[in-house]
Amino acid sequence: MFKELLKVLGESLTVEKYASQNGLLQRIDPRVKLIGFTCLIVFTVLMQNCQQFAILLLFLTLLAVASLIPLRAFFSRQAMVMIFSTIIVIPLPFITPGTPIFVTPLGPWVIWITFEGLYRAAIFGMRIWVCVAALSLLTLSTRFPVLLHGMQRLRIPSLFISLTALTYRYIFLFTDEAYRMGLAREARMVKKERIFRLRTWRTISSMIGTLFIRAYERGEKVYQTMIARGFTGHFHLLTRLKMGFNDYGFAISLLGITVLVYFAPLLFPITMFGGWF
User: Fold this and answer.
1) φ, ψ of residue 23 in degrees (nearest 5)
2) What was the pLDDT predicted at 179?
């Protein structure tokens, strides 16, 4: 389990490596990427069929390739969210009324799966997938200080920027803290414990509680230190952002493709599949 924590920490630290490459998105102004991907997510929430989501996923994948981001890193950052979204939509095929495609008796009950339920589950899952893919592409192609600078230039409230910055920095700190706690525990063990034993889960819950206490104490100390050094809630950066021809071109292209995919069912009502799903 603790080896997996170290692996997660190592993969998180490679984000800056991808953001420093000379790819397509790395050369785009962070303000353009923030606005562009936000618009894409808003339009994605309003879409209602699977083909639109598939086109946007293909488009985002091509952007990742053009930005020199490995597809393994691109899709692996979406895996955990997709697992949770799959768990959430599992009841939909069973509770949504509609045309049954599978019916089986189970004692005094009858269990059925409807086509409408499967359709709603697929729509929900693919919508989440597109949104997470867009956010993953934004974070993988932009260094975090530059992203914060773009948020400042867009007049986003400084409180939100401060919370985002501190949360991002503390993720690495507490992941490393949790790994060291787990490593110390394993060093005191005679034999490896089974993950499915109740005692193991009690130990893990106790470690989580200790980690939260340490996080609270560390946060108070850091806050008092920042106040003592004159922190006023604003981050000052030396870099300057300047829009160029490539930035305007990317903004127009991204918005144009998003709007075209959104209105595609109205512009092209008949496809090779006989209609939009």
Assistant:
1) -95, -175
2) 75
